[in-house]
Amino acid sequence: MLKRVSLWLALSTVLSGLATAADYSEFTVPGLAKGQITHGDIAPLIHYYQQQDWLEVTELGRSVEQRPIYLIKIGQGERKVLAWSQMHGDEPTATAALFDLLAVLQAQQQTDSTQASPAWLDNISLYLIPMLNPDGAERNSRFNALGIDVNRDALALQTPEGQLLMQAAKQIKPHYGFNLHDQNRYHGAGDSKKPATISLLAPAYNEAREINPSRHAAMQLISAVKPMLDKALPQQLGRYDDEYSIRSFGDTFSAMGISTVLVESGGQYNDRFRQQARQLNLQLYLSWLAMISNGSYRDYDLSGYNSIPMNNSNGMKDLIISDVTLQRADGSGPLAKVDLAFTAGGNGRGPVVLNEIGDASIYGGYHSLDASGMVYSAGKAYPLTGPLNLSAERYVQLLAEGYSHFSGEARLLTNNSGLPVAINPRGVNTLWPQRQLSTTFLLTLEGAVQWAVINGRLIRLADASLVDAYSGN
Ligand SMILES: [Zn+2]
Known about the structure:
Blueprint: H1 2-16, H2 21-25, H3 39-50, E1 55-62, E2 68-74, E3 79-85, H4 93-111, E4 124-129, H5 134-139, H6 160-172, E5 176-182, E6 188-189, E7 198-201, H7 213-232, E8 237-239, H8 249-255, E9 259-265, H9 275-294, H10 303-306, E10 311-312, E11 316-327, E12 334-344, E13 352-358, E14 364-370, E15 375-377, E16 380-384, E17 388-390, H11 392-400, E18 403-408, E19 413-415, E20 441-445, E21 448-454, E22 457-460, E23 465-467
Parallel strand pairs: 3-4, 3-5, 5-9, 7-8, 11-14, 16-18, 17-19
Antiparallel strand pairs: 1-2, 2-4, 6-10, 7-9, 11-12, 12-13, 15-20, 20-21, 21-22, 22-23
Helix pairs in contact: 1-4, 4-9, 7-9
The structure holds zinc ion (ZN).
C-alpha cells in the first residue's frame, strides 16, 4: 500500500511537470542503463506489455535477420503521434526512455485514479516503434544487417526496416512524429564549451528550409520545451543542423506534412550511459503529449526555437592537457607552451588519438589536466631482455626513472600492475608530440615525473592511480 501511495505521488508530480529526478526514477525501467540495448533486452518488456489490455502490441514486421520490430498503440484519440527509436542500432538512449514512458502509463493504469490520469490519453493516439533496427542494435552498429543507413533509405526504401517505418507512417497518417536518436559526445552546445546533452530540430522539408504550417508546429513544440531544458541543462541544449537531407526520414516525413521533431541525446559529464538525457527524453515526451492534446504549444512563437545555439559538431574533446611546456632541441630551455587535445575513436571504445596540438581553448573537455609548469618528455624505452613480472610498485618506479614504454617482445611482459602499458608504441622518441601519434609520454615538474600518459591514459604517479578519461558513451 505504501508503495502504491509513493507511486501515486510520483506519478502525480511527473504528470504535472513538477517532478524531481527522484520522482522520475520511480519509472526508470531496470536493466537498460547501458551503452548497448539489444532486442534481447526489450523482448521481456514487450512480452509483459503484450499481456496488458490498455495498449496494443503488434509485430510490425521483421528485420533483415528476422528479428521482430514492434508497434505499440496507446489511446484512441484523434491526434496521432508516431515515435520511433534506434533506427541507428547504436543509439539506444531513447529506447530506454520509451519504456520509461510505458512504465508511467502502466502506473497510471494501476493506480486507477482519475486524478493521476493523463488527460491527453483522451485526445491522442500514440504509436511507438521502439528499436526500429534490431540487427544494428545486436552489432552495436549504426547500420542495418546489409550495412545500409536506414535513415538514408527514406527514398530508396531498400531496407525492410525503412519500408516498415514508411508503411506505418502511411497507414497511421500521424500528425506528429518524434524521431529519436543519439549523437556522438563531441557535439558541443554552441560555443559554451559544454556538451550538447540534448539537441532538437524541426527538420527542413525542402532545400530552401522554408517554414510551412507543419514545420512551424514542430518548431513551436521545441520553443515550448526550451524553458524546461534550459533549467535542467544550462548551456547544454543544442539545435541540430537543419540542412535538408532528402534521403532521411525526418525530412521526408516533414515533407509529408507530419510535424516532426528530432531529439538527439548527447554526452554528459560523468554520465557514461546518458541517464540524464534518458530522463529528459521522458520529460519531453510527457510535455509534448500534454501540449499536443490541449494545443497549448500553439501559444509559443518561434523565438525560443531560434534562440537555441547551433550544435558545434567538434566542440568537445575527451581529454585536454593544457599549458604543456615543450623544450628547445638543445635542451637550453622552454620553446613553446601548448595544449594537447585527445579523443577516443569509436565513441570511447577505440584507440586514443592526439588530434590537436596548440591552442585548444575553444574546446570543452570531459576531462582536463592543467600541466602549467610541466615539461613534455617522450620518455625512454625499457628493453625487455627477459621475463618481467610487472607490479604496480615496480611500474611506477620505472615511470619515475623516465621510462614511458617497453621495447622488445611483448610476450616477455606480464602486467600485474592494473595500469596500462605501452609496448613498442608508435610516435614516441620524438622531442615534441606528433599529431595523430603521440599518446605515450611523461610530464615532469622540475625534473620529477608527475604524470605518465600511456596509450592516452593518464597515470598519476603520486598514488599510482589511473584517470580514465575515455569511459564516455
Ligand atoms: Zn541516429
